[in-house]
Design goal:
This protein has about 250 residues and is of the alpha/beta class. The chain contains eleven helices and ten strands. It folds into two domains: about 110 residues, 3-Layer(aba) Sandwich (Rossmann fold); about 130 residues, 3-Layer(aba) Sandwich (Rossmann fold). It is an enzyme of class 4 (lyase).
């Protein structure tokens, strides 16, 4: 059965995307097509904040892109050595909260210990943070221009201070239309399509509707998390499954 995953390919240590491998174990032939590109913003301001861990109670990462922004700050400002020898240790003395194993592994690679990765989505992470934190120094939350409001609202309601900084924005991948057309012409209509974010849905749905035509009702739509599932439902599309966490096993199981 052919399934289409609208995400960037990411090779793991075995040289294969973990989603393709995991779905393959279930006899599903998965193809990846990226639908989003990213532009980074406010890196000098973010870099300055990263240089002053004493002003914060910890960090929150809800996307791999936010972690990439940290790496770019360190490279751009020649702070890699300072990070290794002092900053990393100071941040590790605080809480570093993450959503999902993919984000967690990237945070681990820059030398930070993480907690909360098993929460699976921002809402559950917010509950976890609220159960652990007491109002003190603000948590630093690097995020994208389109961030969910659930986590900030839940922390605010509990009186836990948080400082957001927008460090990236999502833009349509330049090859969406060509890549989708090529897939449909070579492989036909997929049995299932998985969306990985509301933004990915926004930038690809029109092309999918045009290519699928009257056969769109045959496709089973899957979402990687609750916010994406809500976005699908808002477009009037039936959601066949929502992965319990943003991981290959959870999606494959769904």
């Amino acid at each position: 059965m052919k399934v289409l995953l609208l995400k960037d390919p990411k090779e793991d240590d075995c040289g294969q995307d973990p989603y393709i491998r995991e779905l393959g174990l279930y006899g599903l032939e998965a193809t990846l097509i990226p639908v989003l590109s990213f532009e980074f913003l406010s890196l000098s301001s973010f870099s300055e904040k990263l240089s002053h861990p004493e002003g914060y109670g910890g960090l929150i990462f809800t996307s791999p892109r936010a972690v990439e922004a940290v790496e770019l700050c360190l490279e751009k400002d020649n702070k890699t050595e300072v990070w290794k020898h002092s900053l990393k240790e100071k941040w590790n003395a605080k809480s570093v909260y993450v959503v999902g194993s993919a984000t967690s592994s990237l945070v681990n690679k820059i030398g930070l210990d993480t907690e909360g990765e098993s929460c699976g989505n921002a809402e559950k992470l917010a509950e976890y943070i609220c159960s652990r934190e007491s109002p003190a120094l603000p948590l630093l939350f690097p995020c994208g221009t389109v961030k969910g409001e659930i986590l900030p609202k839940m922390l605010k309601d509990k009186g836990i201070p948080m400082e957001s900084i927008i460090v990236y924005q999502k833009v349509p991948h330049p090859g969406i239309q060509v890549n989708l057309h090529s897939y449909y012409s070579q492989q036909g209509i997929p049995a299932s399509i998985t969306f990985f974010s509301p933004s990915g849905l926004t930038h690809s749905l029109k092309h999918i509707q045009e290519l699928s035509g009257d056969n769109i009702g045959r496709i089973k739509f899957a979402a990687i998390g609750p916010s994406t599932a809500r976005a699908l439902a808002a477009q009037g599309l039936p959601v066949s499954c929502t992965a319990e966490s943003p991981t290959p096993p959870a999606l494959a199981k769904g």
